[in-house]
Amino acid sequence: MLNAANSGHDQRGATLLEMMIAMALGLMVLSAVIALYMQTARSFHQQHAMADLQVRGRMATQLLSEELRRTGFWGEIMTPSRSAECSNMTKAVDIACALPVWGGTAEQARALGLVPKSATTLDDGTARPSAVVAVRYADHGNGTCLTLDAGASPPRQLTLEPPCQGDWHYRAGIYYLRMVDDVYSGERVPALYVNQRSASGNYSSTEIVRHVEAFEVEWGRDETGDGSVNRFYASDAVAGWKPADWDQVVAARIYIVMRSEKMAQPMPAREFLVAGRSIAFEADHYQRRLFVTTATLRNTRLRSAHEF
């Protein structure tokens, strides 16, 4: 009977105190696992957003750089002639004036008819840079045929009238910012667009990349004729430039402020130096990065250095 009593005593269940201690320890371990998981998930989401931000920013700057490097190339024609009417900037945007590149603000571009009315800065009341860049050149693509107007005075003016004389085609693109409705976030977000000329002569706008919060370009002019930049000018400083001034541009410094998709955790306020101007962003749920690159307008620089 003594052995049976001892056996029953040895098989008794856990006491209430022991259960409470075990549950407390279990909750502590579970809380630590959940906290670790949440931290890992936030870190992964943040790294993914930064990687996506990097890809989109590099894509935008690389595209603009490549376009600017090609601008001012007219096939076998190194220096097309201009008429006296080209001194008027409203006429200088015509193909006959062979203006290789143009830059300015959205308001100036709208006045010249280069961009639609939707080209605007952010609609949140801030005054962030919203530059417009127009590039033009000849290539072997599918655009409108580019040739010479042999009957014009002076000769060697560019024209887009058929028939083709050779296989060069006209390429024109106007890059600008506009606001778009984002289905994913349900908000209006800023995006970089290009207004391109088709083979039929019509212009249509195409989105390149979203979440571009600031876009500025500084234009580097060769004012001594040696092919090197003497000074850079921001978009708001080139309003009075004529075609002869744009012919001196041999480089362009591009500034783009990109933001990520909306983050779960708040991000601190940021401040960026864009073309010598401080641009502040308040604390919100977006990561941001400034992308800066300088592109050489090799065709304009070649003509300037060799006096073509």
TrEMBL record:
InterPro entries per UniProt: N_methyl_site, PilW
Keyword terms: Membrane, Transmembrane, Transmembrane helix
Pfam families per UniProt: N_methyl, PilW
Residue intervals passing through the bilayer: 20-38
Residue ranges that the Swiss-Prot or TrEMBL entry lists as coiled coil: none
Any one of the GO BP annotations: type IV pilus assembly
Signal peptide: none
Protein origin, superkingdom: Bacteria
Name of the protein: Tfp pilus assembly protein PilW
